[in-house]
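To make this tangible, we now present a fold written out as tokens:
***
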Amino acid sequence: MAEALSDLGHEVHVIELTELFKLPANLIIERLHSINPDFALMYGVSGLIHISHNSREINLLNDLDIPFACLICDNPELIMKTLKWANCSLMHLFVWDEVYESELRKLGFNHTYPFALATNARRFAQIAANVNKEPEFRVPLAFIGSLPNSESIFRLQNEIGLPSLLLEALLRVRKHNPLWTWRHCIHSLCENLGEESAKELELLVNSPGFDKVNLFLDWHLTYVNRSGIVQFLESEGLNIWGGENWRSVLRDANAYRGRIDYETETPILYRSADIIIDVPSAQLLTSVNQRVFDVLAAGGFVVTHHQPDLDKFFKVGKEICSYRSKNELIKRIKHYLTCPDDRQEIIDAGRARVLKEHTYELRAKYLIDIMEKVIEKRRSVVPQLASTYFRHISCNICERGQSVDLFTIQYPYGGTELEFKMVLCQNCGLAYNNPQWNPELIADFYREKYHRTPNQHEQDVKVINIAVPCYEQELDFLEEYIGSPARILDVGSGTGSFTAVTAARGYEAWGVEPYRKAVETAIRLFSKCGGQYLEGYLEDLVLPKAYFNALVFNDVLEHLHKPKQILLLARDLLVSGGFLLVTVPDVESVIAKVQGYLGQLWGPPFHLYGFTRRTVKKLLESAGFEVLKCRTGLMYSGQIMVIGKKYFD
């Protein structure tokens, strides 16, 4: 990539990290200042310089305000801890696989772009073109690649504690869903396992060592796939170049030809062998292996496993040859070994396509185009003062200030980008937005989200038809605790469904909602049911104290800036021994983990808090309520429903 950037006329400084990390922090900073780069480029997270400076642990690039681009050419789960630590508006991820790109966006990495692998044309096209076919490499079938060490795989399995039966079940899930990440496979399997096995897998997903789980699963499946194909083709005269681990799986010791130098020998081998066999590693879900581009650039013929992205890059059958099964692979091999003219047609067409569209010089130009826009935007936008939009807060439950970062997402606003950061309280475990977006800023986002459309009435009716049956059951649950007659206040009543349900059963029903158009919709749709609908925030309205038998907060607390303080107000409105019914999304639920940080349960930037069963109970207790029951909610998968009782006046 450095060569490609230089060829495009850019000034490139290559920094050897092993040498850089030997320097003290002040000299590292001085070195970067002397270069004054427009942006930094690295493979994976290798260049994320984590140093201690002035008694602070910092990501140096972020601290020096240097945008940086990470080329993610591995399973991102292997480096997820570092990615989460480094996530900020300066970080831009270029990802080789569209599945991983989608997953990273769900986890809050907004600046994520597709970045397909390619070839170094200078190395593979030019070297191969200037060298005759070498007799040593003139073989009918060749495989070049590594094989994970079986003993290392076994040790890693023991280290992470994954039983063989669960491993087999996971491999079956992946076989039927080849585009699923391991995280997705595990969550799917959990839903179909017994409670004990599901807990075992959930512990793996949530453990700090989940990167090792991914590494083991990738290694294991790569070992199975590659050794299976190589052993299958051994009788066909396959020659293998790669690491020493191949010796343990080959029946014929002569089939193993030893190691090969990637820069000087592989271009010649690719050009000299009749057919190169490609078996992608398991971490490639949709993307095409770099070996495919390299072989074609060198003027060689490759038969590769049919990855989904292959059809995007080539005319399959005319510019590239692929297989989906072992039987299909052997058919392709026999045909093209006996039909050299057909083979040459594909070689010529494939090479032309690669040199025209799939070189690292072209990929570098694509990356530069994106980063130039980033740089231009940073130069043209006058940064707004952070104090205009944010305020630093402590945990709303325990009021402590110690926290660790969970995720950061950038949102465009007023010509710049604002960071929405969620942190986790180290004392009580509450997830909350900090620094917290101020109410005026949040209101702007709500106005955009709740803009009324011409067919809004039909949309309202559709939502209400789904909500009312759920609210009927929710009221059944509340009626297990309250008597009749009773006065019920619905806080954050929206378009009025729950208030209407309570009024229809003969209760004195009140609804409070700050959004005017929602109140107007509630009155229009439910005025015949009875009930009072008030516009405003609970803290701004004058309501009778010690009047209501129950207050209800349906998916409201996560939206509030100060939920504990609102619950303290709610307590004053309740009669002695009154009840509080709360529903919130559970950010520890399986569905929340599948959706990721951008999903509806985390709900940024509208959800300022992420609750779990444990933290929502702590919140109610801190506001003076005894938690009587906590159960699964009724409205959607991943919802918590809690009933509390006012236990002192």
In short: The chain has four domains: 2-118+362-380, 121-356, 387-449, 456-646.
